[in-house]
Amino acid sequence: MIRRLFPRRKKEEPPDELPDGLAFKPRQLSYDQVHEQWDKLQHRIGATGPVRTGASPGWSYILRTAAVLTGVTLLGLLGWWYYQTRSFTRLEAGYGQITRVTLPDGSEAVLNGNSSLRYRKSWRPGQVREAWLEGEAFFHVRKQSTLTRFLVHTGGLQVEVLGTEFNVSTRRGHTEVVLHSGAVKLVAGSPGKTVYMQPRELVRYSEKRVEFRKKNVHTEQYLAWQHGKMVFDDTPLQQVARMLQDTHGLTVLIDDPALAGRKVTGEIQTRDVDVLLAALATLLDAGVQRNGDEVTITSF
Question: What ranges in the chain are assigned the alpha helix state H?
């Protein structure tokens, strides 16, 4: 029997954060102010003559108040949208894509498939360098003489560096940070829990429990995706299936619980999905069939 391990879910795009210092305050209007704003609103839309609502004077006032406040809110939202589009850059990598970008300070970021990065279009001297990540990215941070902080916000976690190379992956409520060189400070929760990292360390952070787990790793395995590869070292097939879904948008079905627990060791090219699946079949000594974005793995 075919068992669906990882059902596909529609990705929900979290709302963009408001820029620092920008907030909307409720506005209280008097009866006379409401009518004054109502008249101005009618003039803007070209309305002529009295507007008849068929409601009582009290309801008429309420309806006019709602219309005026809606107009005020709309202007505020338009201002916020204008600020976002003019001040921020949003970079996206689709399923199976690897996208590289040079940040405003000369630092470099590489996005894995199904990931996005948002940052201000310009970073002024002495200003904190900040980026907001969804998915997975590798950062090569350019060190500055002014020691300006570099912050990456992702999955409830703040990654702070001065000059370093590190990988950040946020998937399914968990964030993994792998430090290749330099030094990193991780901060999460309120009051903030702090963890300091050394090279060749991996820290796994859980949003639900607000906790860190640290271990030593061979960083090459976690950075291979930048070169179009997946490197496995006794990696459970269930984990491999999650990686294929997260970065390539594939739904993986495994027909045997014993097969789901099999370990995979080896290196696979990821630039061509069909080549990737053929190599996976060889490593597993199993049958792998693809139908669109659905992949079925069966025991021989």
Answer: 31-45, 57-87, 219-223, 237-248, 257-260, 273-284
